[in-house]
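no rush on this but wanted to send it before i forget. theres a chain ive been looking at and ive put its sequence and its fold in token form underneath. i want to understand how the tokens follow from the sequence so walk me through it. thanks a lot i owe you, the record is right below:
>
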Amino acid sequence: MKTLAIVGTGLIGASFGLAVRKAGFRGPILGVSSPPALADALEAGAIDRGAVLAEAAAQADLIFLAQPIGRILDTIRHLDPLVRPDALVTDAGSTKCQISDLALQEITRCQFLGGHPMAGKERRGAKAADANLFLGCTWVLTPEEPRALETDQARDLVDWVRRIGARPLVLDPEEHDRVVALTSHLAQLASTALASTVAEHLTPPDRLAVAGPGLRDMTRLGLSSYDLWRDIVATNSDAIGQVLGRYIQKLEYLRDNLRTRQLEEEFRSAAALAAKLRHC
């Protein structure tokens, strides 16, 4: 990688710029975003300068699409005439099927390799960017076929993913979307539903003073932005609908077994998974 273009200089894009710079990248980093976002990214040191998409794509050999999903899809529709033939386009979208399918149709002059770093914060924007955001996190790569990982450009991307401290994991786009519906999207919607339920039924509101740390922990994801999650839910609605159905069944099972020993087994199973998560 000699020149990096980051399209979307929010939390993930700006953190990637900081991370590769910390890992030893010395080439120019161009940012493509709104003027306020570019100003924040410049102040954070995540990019060297802003550029329009056509200028950045013409210079970069790695183009990292770190926008919300809807904007990633729109960028893909306009990108092909602008890219260098030896470039690699990758992305950070939280769902992969629609992005990968569209890229397969629209990006023909260079390679596209879908990606999803499993990292983030409730806060958005370059002001929250962190060079260590990806340390120890899984970075999913979603090639349409295995040989897509054998190009020089793909090997270089994987090398940089490792150099910033992330762990590459290869999944096909369909499996990715099925898995994240269960491991990520369900957690967000469960947290949102919990916070919304408490907000609707806790009266008067000052009774929140009775809440313990468990409610704070469980509603942390309730701070997330709907603007971000709207596209995620819309582009993975079938898989999310299935896992929500299973979750609802589990809640109903717990309700029906509040006075039986079956509840103990659910606690045991939940504790085992929670322990595994904390040692991954």
In short: DSSP finds eleven helices and eight strands in the chain. The longest helix spans residues 173-201.
